[in-house]
Amino acid sequence: MGVLKITESSIEFSRRNEMACISAWGKDVLRFRSSANGYLNDENWILIEQENCEVATYMEGNHAVIVNGNIKAVMYDNGKVVYYKKDKADGEFKILLEEMTEYAFDSFYRTYRAKGSNTHTANVLFKPYADEHFYGLGGEHNDCFDMKGTVSELQHRNTKSSVPFVYSSRGYGFIWNNPSVGRCELTKNHSRWTAYCTKQVDYLVIAGYTPAQIMGKYADITGHTPDFPEFASGFWQCKLRYESQEDLLEVAREYKKRNIPISVIVIDYFHWTEQGDFKFDPKFWPDPKAMVDELNEMGIKLMVSIWPTSNPKSENYRYMDDRNMILRTENGVYGMQDFYGQQDYIDMINPEARDHVWSLVKKNYYSAGVKYFWLDEAEPGMVPNHYDNIRCCRGNFEEFALLYPYYYEKMFYEGLKEAGEEEIITLARAGYMGSQKFGALMWSGDVPSTFESLEKSVKTGLAMAMSGIPWWTTDIGGFWGGDIESDYFKELIVRWFQFGVFCPVTRLHGSRMRPKGHINRHPGINEMSGGDNEIWSFGDRDYEILKELVELRERLRPYVMEYMKEAKETGVSILRPLFMEYPDDKETYGIEDEYLFGRDILFAPIFKQGATERKVYLPEGTWINVNDRTENEGGQWVTACADIDKFIAYVRKGAKVLEVF
Fold first, then answer.
1. Pairing outcome for strands 372-375 and 301-306
2. pLDDT at site 442
């Protein structure tokens, strides 16, 4: 048995090879830390300090108790911890979450295996509940929204942002406050959280009575979004890739000529002289300032892709490498990804590296009027993902890897803020808890152009919403493999665009297959463009449909902005699973492929090739079909139909937004 101790604000436990502490982190939230090192680390990582709150601590027999508002924890003298939540009906504390051991006769509720020095591979296990559902963990293209029964890597990859937070249908939120690469098992026989390289176990439990309450507390702890720029609520045009300044301007002019609303146009990668130079190639982008000025006159914002890669051919490499501003391999020569030569990644965790890179971006982009940036390769996109063979400024990268996109986004946010900018939004391929406070707009990564991928993207968007990331988008049409001359893709792009209209950001992007007869406008260029990807690129039928969808999004912008303001205040995304608004309706917890867009619009995407109908669950209330204006009572499943030029959506009776359809 171990030794228990109480203070005014915490309960503590110690025994051979472990010490642990539970304390408050704002009202209704408890933070647990434990270590095999003989001390506890005070590193808070991304957590925001909370106001002091009243807690009660006391000893009771063989256990110590801490009570903080509606949550209570009991720590026993064998090290076991059980969490309780006050029942709203009778005021009694009832079990919420309970630790368990790996084996029946095991007496260790947390396990540690030494990695070297003061780091360990650490685990904590909790008892499973058959009727429990989990949502969150970031965005992964895995066809799962309810994560119960799954095993997930805690590691960023292209198409995967690891955000180690889950909302439980039992009425709590769980933050795994550890930036180490790891693993989360939410299986039938246990829930296990693992950090592969850490100094301590560190997690928080948030108690609440509704999903919205818990998401609000989570936002208080990790950060609220800034104001969403109004221009960003419109239509974004993007492709892989516009090869030159004139190519991009021709597309922008054509949109204006056709009187099609467009808010943002994007310059993708390899517009630069070399990876790590952070500047336009003057051969193809001779006058960036004039380009920005012309776009501004058309009412179009410019976004430019940035990669955190560099190599010895870059004019900045030697300076940064000599000052340890670049990630290094623990064993072997330089190079973490082979893409037009071996590339290293800049150490975005290093504040000196961030300051230096921002100075280059400010000199070469911001001075030309570029204020919006696409932070690609934000994971970072190393191949292979052997993070334990990488060293950053703070030590072995495996211990800190999940923080990489967080600091990448922080660099741009703080640099733009310091430059006097107020409307800040970056597009990022990965993010972490707290990324939202830096104006990071996540997207689903380089997913394939298939109907199966569209279905997965719906679930990815909902998972990101339940991970506290309210700004999210997807590549409309998918990223790779799209044949713009095929009937398959022409159907897919319409169905995906319908989904895109009902996302926080509507952005058309992708690397389209180059059709026969494609003319190389710039022969010999390093990285050529894919096929055309403007709304008039997919045939006359699709053009008319997509034009109407862009115009619908334009009419929806005031509605979108209303919920973006609400997201800033509450932490609740405009993209909402049904249980967010109907937590007492048990049916809603199993629905993964339809959602609420705000409170007043219910959208049910069609994601099967050739389909024109699907089943839709309508929650409590009266819902109006936007196509035929029929009224439907909620609390039931209905069959809804929509030909290719229509989509399935319902509006809550009495909502003014019905007028835009």
1. parallel
2. 98
| Percentage of the chain exceeding pLDDT 90 | 96
Count CB-CB contacts under 10 A for residue 364.
17
- Report how far residue 491's alpha carbon sits from residue 38's, in angstroms, rounded to the nearest whole number: 61
Residue 93 in contact with residue 72, Cβ under 8 Å?
yes
Which H helix or E strand runs over 458?
A: helix 451-465
pLDDT beneath 70: ranges in the chain: none
The C-alpha atoms of residue 320 and residue 346 are separated, in whole angstroms, by 8
Cα distances from 226 to residues 19, 411, 572, in angstroms, run 38, 15, 13
Element (H, E) at 285: none
Those residues whose C-beta lies under 8 Å from the C-beta of residue 628, and which sit 6 or more positions away, are none
Q: What's the distance, Cα to Cα, between the start and end of the chain in Å?
A: 66
The residues that bridge with 491 in the sheet, in sequence order, are: none
CA distance 84 to 500: 41
C-alpha distances in angstroms, 113 versus 30, 45, 226?
26, 22, 41
The backbone region for 654, taken as left when phi is positive above 0, alpha when psi lies in -120 to 50, beta otherwise, is left
Task: Report residue 213 as tokens.
Answer: 């309450």
pLDDT at 523: 87
Strand (E) or helix (H) holding 163: strand 160-168
CA–CA separation, 95 vs 127, rounded Å? 11
What residue type is 96 in one-letter code?
L
What Å distances lie between residue 546 and 436, 556, 644, CA to CA? 30, 15, 11
How far, in Å, CA of 82 to CA of 76, rounded?
Answer: 9
Q: In which element (H, E) is residue 655 found?
A: none
Q: How far is CA 613 from CA 609, 639, 640, 644, in A?
A: 11, 7, 5, 10
Rounded Cα distance between 179 and 564, Å, is: 28
Closest CA to 461 of 480, 469, 430: 469
CB-CB neighbours of 384 under 10 Å: 8
Ramachandran angles phi, psi of 144, nearest 5°: -125, 135
* pLDDT given for residue 1 in this prediction: 86
Supply angle C-alpha 618, 622, 626, rounded to 5: 80
Burial, 585: exposed, middle or buried (Cβ in 10 Å; 0-12, 13-18, 19+)? middle
What are 134's two structure tokens? 């989990």
Q: Which residues are catalytic?
A: 376, 379, 446
| 277 three-state secondary structure | coil
pLDDT at 132: 98
